Structure formats: structure tokens, C-alpha cells
Amino acid sequence: MRIAIVTDSTAYLNKEEYNQKGVHFVPLSCIFGTDIYKEEVDITTEAFFEKVALSEQLPTSSQPTVGDFTTLYESLQKDYDAIISIHLSSRISGTYQNAFSVAKSMDGTTIYPFDSGLAGAGLAFQVKEAARLAKQGESVNTIIDRLEELKTITDIYFVVDDVTNLIKGGRISKAAGGVATLLKIKPVLTMRAGEIVPQDKIRTKKKAMKKMETLFEESVRNAHYPIQATIVHAYCEDEARAFMSQLEEKYPTVRFNFSFLGPVVGVHTGQGAIGMSWTKDYMRM
């Protein structure tokens, strides 16, 4: 069976990964006033943050439309018997719901929408593993089972310089975010049950990043399988690469990847956010 793997732009794979792994994506959009830009299509991450710095009003974001999904799915129908469509958490975006709506209405190729419960690097782990299994000729059921497993064993944490955007976008509660703003702390945030929630409240970014490392160290120590990890950043590459270099030296058994947070997630995290996600490394089992 020929299975296509589809995701959305918040997986933040690079062009080489999309091409090599045969993954297709629908872009989400960031909006400045009346101007709409599809991320990774109409605007780069660098251009986005430069535009934010010059803008008096915070941009917003929006999910792919039903038409976006219909166009992509129809283009894949002639070459594939099934489509597995993996998207960022339905608790923070309507992307999965739109994919699900289109999947129910289309004839021909069977479409299997999947709610990753995650975003960014956490979503990317699922997408890349699904693509690997699809290339090996595994069945839809096998791939979906693997995605369900990844959904439960993947950790994701990040630190933002300012929680204002997350509060305004409704991604964290006003109560949790208000305390962080009032006390000028750098909360370590995580995702649980598909939602962004505070993990810890820490005074400085350096200490917050150390907290992420401590959580990571516990997972590496207690895991009964090889670990892979991805470091992500919102337009602060040098700081994030320095962080990853330290981790690579301390944890030589872990396979590290490096990625970024693009415009749509950057709308909410703001510039300067750094995060990490880790999970089972099936390629080394």
C-alpha cells in the first residue's frame, strides 16, 4: 500500500527533510493587520521576526482552511492509496478539525487524520517516524499505533522571555501567565493533554534552561531505550546551538537534532524562546 504522510508547517521540518522523507505539508498563516502570510511559503522566520520588531501591533495566526486541505489531498489521490495526516494539538489549533472535516467528505483515497497532541519538535518526531515506516511498507494500523505510542512518551518543554503573547493568544491562562508577568519570572512551560501549561516558575532564563536539562537528565537516566532529542529556538540560534553543544558533550548516548520555531508558533512565544523535546529513538533499536 502506498501511504502519503501529511503534516502542517508547525512541524518545522527543513526543506531537505521534506524532500528526503517524502512528507507533504499545509501551511498555517500569520496575520499582520490585513496582510496574511503562509509560513514557510510567503514569509521566512527571519523576515517574520524582523517584521514583528517594526510592527506596533502583535500579529495573529490562523489554521489552514478546508480548501487548503482539499487541494493537497486531491493532489495526492492519484499516487497514494491512503493518507495519514498528522497535525498540531487540537487543543491549541483548529488545524486537526479542518483536516478531519475534509477527510470525512472526500471520496477515493482513505484519509486518516491524527491529532499529535503536540507541536514543533514533538510533532516532528511523529511525522518523521510515520514517514520512515511508510517507506518501509508498514500498514496504516502499524503507523497509527506507533503515533499513539509517541504521543504518550514524548516530552516537550520550553522557556519564553515574555508570556504576554501566550496570554493574549489564549495559549495559557491569564491566571498562570499573570503571575509570571507580575513577578517577571521565566516559566518553564510544557504540554499536557495537548495544552500548554506551566511546569515551573524560575527567576532567570539561565536557571529555567537548567531546569529543562534536569528534567531531560532524569528521562535519559530512567529510560530503557535509546533517546533522541531536538533543541528548538525562536530566532536566537546562537544561544540555542550553544545549549545543544553543552548537552551533546554531557549526553553522548543521545542523538540530537536542531530545529526552529517559525512564525505561527513565534507569534505566541515571541523572539528568544528556547525549547527541547525528546522521545524514543526507534532508528537505534
Summarize the structure.
The chain has 285 residues and is an alpha/beta fold.
How many discrete domains?
A: 2
Q: Helix- and strand-based class?
A: alpha/beta
CATH class membership of the largest domain: Alpha Beta
Total DSSP helices: 11
- Under the CATH scheme, the architecture of the largest domain is 2-Layer Sandwich
The CATH topology of the largest domain is given as Hypothetical Protein Tm841, Chain: A,domain 3
Q: Please estimate the helix content.
A: 40-55%
Are there runs of 5+ residues with pLDDT below 50, and where?
A: 173-183
Strand percentage lies at 15-25%
Mean pLDDT rating:
91
The geometry reads as: globular
Note down, in words, how this protein is organized.
Helices cover 44% and strands 24% of the residues. The chain has helices at 15-21, 45-54, 66-77, 95-105, 120-135, 140-153, 164-168, 174-183, 205-222, 237-250, 263-269, and strands spanning 3-8, 23-26, 29-32, 35-38, 60-62, 82-87, 110-115, 155-159, 188-192, 195-200, 227-233, 255-258, 274-280. Mean pLDDT is 91; it is low at 173-183. It has 285 residues and is an alpha/beta fold. Helix 5 runs antiparallel to helix 6. Strand 11, helix 10 (237-250) and strand 12 (255-258) form a beta-alpha-beta unit. It folds into two domains: 3-28 and 63-152, Rossmann fold (3-Layer(aba) Sandwich), CATH 3.40.50.10170; 155-284, Hypothetical Protein Tm841, Chain: A,domain 3, CATH 3.30.1180.
